[in-house]
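Fold these two proteins, one after the other.
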Amino acid sequence: MVRDRGTDDATVERFVTERAFGDNRTPTEAVVDAISDATGQAPTDVGPLSAVLDPDALDAILGPDGPTPTARISFTVDSCAVTAHADGRIVVLPQGGENA
């Protein structure tokens, strides 16, 4: 967990992780695991990504055969702002709670 000071001097917590994508792990699976880690939920309790984006498109854009190694996708799911990068870095910013 990383703590940042926002522009309004409020402390903001964000969860930053790196997840390897590869033959046995898709970007979608890595994102679900990162949200799970950041929120303390079981991966099976994380809201369906398909409600906010196409998981196949996420895998195609961020996967090893994606269009560019600098690609990134940002979206909100389960009250978390998520940015996933093609290099495997995933940033999860939980919304709500005491640090919203």
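Now the second one:
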Amino acid sequence: MLIALFSLINISLFMLHEFEEMIMVKPWIEAQKDNPAYQKEIFIQGRKHYPSTESIALMIGEEFLLVSLISIIASICDLPELALALLIGHLFHLLAHIGEWLRYRRFVPGSCTALLTFPILVGDLLYFFLVRPVNGWLLLVLTPLVLVLILANLRWLHRQSEKIDHWIQRVVK
């Protein structure tokens, strides 16, 4: 039960963060595209190839399903290390946003929820270590594997974004 609750908290905060990115990134790119201070920022650099909001929503939905499936496997198989590996990946993602916030010293899409949820998730991680035995070696093996899986999936989704946009347009006609 603890793994399921732990995973639910992690997924809920992940989705909250993803919603901030999905809602704010396009308007922020439009507002900052000519600002010289942001020309090296990742969203600004990729703005010409950035998917539509609809595609981003569909991609986030697919990520949600993948993370949920991994969390279900962690719960059913009693693998806390698998649930922890997902959380560690999420924390790395949030650290990237916090790094951008520190670099630019102002809002960048994802920075608000990164700053709000990072301490909660670190507390969640520490609490989990206190109440549940964890196989450190298994965690060391699963974390990079999960990170590679998630990053490969994300890269694949971004490569498919134009096809996703076309599919969405076909469906709505």
